[in-house]
Amino acid sequence: MNGNNQQVNKSMSFKLHQVVKLLHHQADVILQQELGISFSQYLVLKVTTQMEGPSQRDVAACLDITPAAISRHIDGLCERGLMHKEAQPDNRRQHSLRLTRVGVSKAESAQRLLSERFDNLMATQLNETEIAQLEVSLDKLIVALQNDKFLH
User: Fold this and answer.
1) Low-confidence ranges of the chain (pLDDT < 70)
2) By the 8 A CB rule, do 37 and 83 touch?
3) Rounded to two decimals, what is the model's pTM?
């Protein structure tokens, strides 16, 4: 490993990026193997359950993905019977998204599965104090990034 790679690997932002990348990949593999859905599809299901009849645009904005990407995800979830679109009474061109019973069950199973896997992983690598400190630190970082004036 040359000096440049060592410098990159020591960078805090690079380490955070690696954690996010690895967590996303692991979640994708786990959900594909166990439930037959991608991590991205799970996120669409999760966001839809947390919002009251969101539109495609609402879900796309929440997940910070393009209209084309959210459209593909939603169409696939509808085809699989996990979600359906309901025309909004005041604007027939817009649709509210709702999960089917199967979709709710799939989202709950995915949440449980990921929590179990990642909680177990954390418990094998960090003690309770370290986990609590990490949670506090992550919460602080999230708030700081949300309030960063350069990002808005």
Assistant:
1) 1-9, 149-152
2) no
3) 0.82
